[in-house]
Amino acid sequence: MPVVLGPNRYGKAETRLVRVVRDGGVHHVKDVTVGSALSGDMEAVHRTGDNAAVLPTDTQKNTVYAFARKHGVAEIEDFAILLARHYVESQPTVHHARVEIEEYFWDRIPVAGEGGGHSFVRSGREVRTCAVHHDRDGTTTVVSGLRDLVVLNSTDSEFSGFIEDEYTTLPPTKDRVLATAVSARWRHPPVAAGRGTAYGESYDEVRRHLLGAFAETYSLSLQQTLYAMGERVLNAREEVCEVRLAMPNKHHFLVDLTPFGLDNPNEVFYAADRPYGLIEGSVLRDDAPDARFAWE
Amino acid sequence: MPVVLGPNRYGKAETRLVRVVRDGGVHHVKDVTVGSALSGDMEAVHRTGDNAAVLPTDTQKNTVYAFARKHGVAEIEDFAILLARHYVESQPTVHHARVEIEEYFWDRIPVAGEGGGHSFVRSGREVRTCAVHHDRDGTTTVVSGLRDLVVLNSTDSEFSGFIEDEYTTLPPTKDRVLATAVSARWRHPPVAAGRGTAYGESYDEVRRHLLGAFAETYSLSLQQTLYAMGERVLNAREEVCEVRLAMPNKHHFLVDLTPFGLDNPNEVFYAADRPYGLIEGSVLRDDAPDARFAWE
Amino acid sequence: MPVVLGPNRYGKAETRLVRVVRDGGVHHVKDVTVGSALSGDMEAVHRTGDNAAVLPTDTQKNTVYAFARKHGVAEIEDFAILLARHYVESQPTVHHARVEIEEYFWDRIPVAGEGGGHSFVRSGREVRTCAVHHDRDGTTTVVSGLRDLVVLNSTDSEFSGFIEDEYTTLPPTKDRVLATAVSARWRHPPVAAGRGTAYGESYDEVRRHLLGAFAETYSLSLQQTLYAMGERVLNAREEVCEVRLAMPNKHHFLVDLTPFGLDNPNEVFYAADRPYGLIEGSVLRDDAPDARFAWE
Amino acid sequence: MPVVLGPNRYGKAETRLVRVVRDGGVHHVKDVTVGSALSGDMEAVHRTGDNAAVLPTDTQKNTVYAFARKHGVAEIEDFAILLARHYVESQPTVHHARVEIEEYFWDRIPVAGEGGGHSFVRSGREVRTCAVHHDRDGTTTVVSGLRDLVVLNSTDSEFSGFIEDEYTTLPPTKDRVLATAVSARWRHPPVAAGRGTAYGESYDEVRRHLLGAFAETYSLSLQQTLYAMGERVLNAREEVCEVRLAMPNKHHFLVDLTPFGLDNPNEVFYAADRPYGLIEGSVLRDDAPDARFAWE
């Protein structure tokens, strides 16, 4: 009964890159983590340890740093496209490359008078992400995203009318706290050539719509909120054809204060860690092109 | 341009369950974390917040605890199968269920003389895992696994003969430390009916073979070691038809001590955190049945 | 050789409390984690398990929630003082109480038109902290603080003129990136009675001065920066008598790009994880009152 | 109102060192993390950035690796003593050094037949620790320890007879699960000269007694268990004069299954994360010598 090699990939994960650009005394900081994963003619290396087809992961790390100097790091999607295409186009044994990048935001520290411009404080807001694939058939896919965008509505959220089976004890509620840490990824239609999309502006707008839909949706279920967030992005941003969201329900339980002679009119909550609800879903255009390997 | 709902699921993640079984004065502890994710007729809840098709995640948590009392928790795969089938078979709106369980190991604390049997110390070895799917078409898939099995070979590992491009600086080496944290998942052929497999014994044997192949493979690349580990399991265990492995290369860099007038004959290493190589691959039987949703 | 009980304390750690206050349609969120630790007549419970002197940790958790409803949660220092005094004053066996609180910041999500006011996004900036002690001798000590305030100067930092021994290989540098995650705690003089200090305003100002001194100090060493930050706070804020700072040196190493025919004019950096320098120091007024147990 | 420099120290934290020793084909692995913190004539560096008294943290890292090659790494306490004395004795500006080391345990992977001896699996049991101080007055203090020793008694634990105030709702219990993650540190009397103590054997025995006392104590409170553990060590090990323990009460709550028509005879538990009780205490000999800076 012969044994065969199935899907595989290898690469360098979590290369930490900080790039400083100087505009006179005013500096700009780009703080990212890059991961690459390659696949292709890898039968020999698995079966016999013959590395002739292997571009070392150490080289992939070096490439990240060298490209940062040669090409700069504008939008993370553009930098990921550069890298992914480079691996496939420069190495015949590499048939497919995936490059994933995370970006962390910094704010400028205000400085009185002269001399400012090179001091920063990490903003701590969500992390921006992207995942780019390039295949030797010429297809490039781009998925942008964010994670750890933690949001909370202190009212305008209900949960009732659900199935009640023999294991159900949850009472329906007409007013609850709804909190979640949004992980969102949105797919751009295949990139024909070059750098058509203004990814930075797109990011800001998608983020704004995600927050807006979360805030403005009177929620009967977290699924409804999730769908509204995806739908809002698709309606507002034509450069996006699909949105995938993962939203843990960060439960805030109303504390029972009656043993202490106190009422609790939706005021004092216990924020629980585990277990938590987890809602995952995709919202896409009816005519969205095939995703191929974009989500892998 | 209409917007549609794509793939989605919801459930309760990370329900912590500890079950104590008493055999006279000798107790047994089962320590697991359970996650469930359901999908089915979920169009309405996403579009309008109508929860009529939704079995609350709170109910899923309750079901875990009630089932632990009613049915016990023998092997985690068996418990996951019970739960997954229950959701699909009891709720017409639930068409598909995935149940994932992690198990943590405890050792008995030896006690001198009488009175022992109820004291335990967490072993801290790897975490055992499983992921079970059940679909309303009657198919059940079972994937067993482990994570955080950290292993190291202090010799018998080389890396040379790789591609050298303009960004390559890594020198070839004929003797290095090879260390990784193994994440392995192995797929069992579809379960026809009932509980055919002795999952506990299977786990112990698969683990033994993974360790054995890691230790006994003279390694020319981490890919070769990965493949050898998967192949060994398939050759030894007929109840497994595919093995998927993810193995970070936990780099141990030889420290250059020449500035201090010292040599370093593969003795003193710096264990780095990031970046790290990451090798992922699947090894399967030529005639393995279709995986369907087993890996999702 | 008799064995005796040394210093001890017990309490409830990490009670998660979220309080929502409604001002019509405009809501306010307070998100904190509370820990309490009590000590006193605890000889019996340690030696024989007699719990007659023990206020259960579960009761301490309840007290946090009940007090949040009864007294509200204005500044975390004030809430901590209330709790600490309550434990000591209500229980004769409790001679000393320490209450520690962390606060997480949320921003309001802007909503177009009517209906906003109850939607928030976690800001992710630093965490605000406090530690309050109350002793039955009537003394209350208050230490305010913050942690995870991550800052970076992309220039105006040198490091040279240090000791060079036989194990020194570091070259001096006249221009480096200086980055750290500031943990700061500042001590207020003993509180005579009541709530004299406007802790919220004090926090904002101390934070502003810490950032300002970090940004405006031309740094010859991280110690110099640390001292300047503490000194600036003491000079500006009379309600503070001592500042303690812990600042890891988050190394940003310039990547050597010469193998690739590239220079690197302080532009491309590798942000390392471990090891890291760690600088800790206290700056205080010459006439600062004795700290007693404030820092314990 | 002049500002002065208070207590301060600086050093290199978390230097990761793995040392491989070869005894023919049989290898031995030592896996540790080292931190050092120095203090002394540091007024100038804080006030003006004059680094003339500063041994760079980078040099401290180098020293760890060079010493590992020159002196080997036997017991972590001995290695820490070597380093701490080196810094104080070689640098006039360094008056005091603290060296902290953590050690991670590995087991040998059994290999059939010939060729084994260089393959290891991380055991995942607790982490061994030590903290050594050396002062220029000639005093060396040694504290050994462990952390993350997770233990559980499934019976023989009660909690009752405690204070009941207006915020108490906890019912007394005569049978509960008692679980904790032990952090223990034990102080050796000052080291006169050389390496008098067999720290490895001492560690194994202290660990054995901690586990034994945990398992064999019928517990009326976690404080009682803590004290019994410390007392047992002091009675059995004359090289130890004080034991400090920190033990979180990892609550296991009995799940109420009555809504499902099920009883729950101490069988099915929910293992909670937060909040948790936290019990800290010291047990020492009546005639223990002064600890001086040992615990700092």
From TrEMBL, chains A, B, C, D:
**Major enzyme class:** oxidoreductase
Where does the record place a coiled coil? Answer: none
Q: Reaction catalysed by this chain?
A: urate + O2 + H2O = 5-hydroxyisourate + H2O2
The residues that cross the membrane are none
Q: Which UniProt keywords apply?
A: Oxidoreductase, Purine metabolism
Which pathway features in its UniProt record?
A: Purine metabolism; urate degradation; (S)-allantoin from urate: step 1/3
| InterPro entries listed in its UniProt record | Uricase
Answer whether the UniProt record assigns the keyword Oxidoreductase to this protein: yes
Q: Which EC numbers does the record give?
A: 1.7.3.3
Annotated family: Belongs to the uricase family.
Q: What does this protein do?
A: Catalyzes the oxidation of uric acid to 5-hydroxyisourate, which is further processed to form (S)-allantoin.
PANTHER family with a match to the protein in the record? URICASE
Q: This chain belongs to which protein, by name?
A: Uricase
Name the species this protein comes from.
Streptosporangium oxazolinicum
Taxonomy-wise, where does this protein's organism fall, top ranks first?
A: Bacteria, Bacillati, Actinomycetota, Actinomycetes, Streptosporangiales
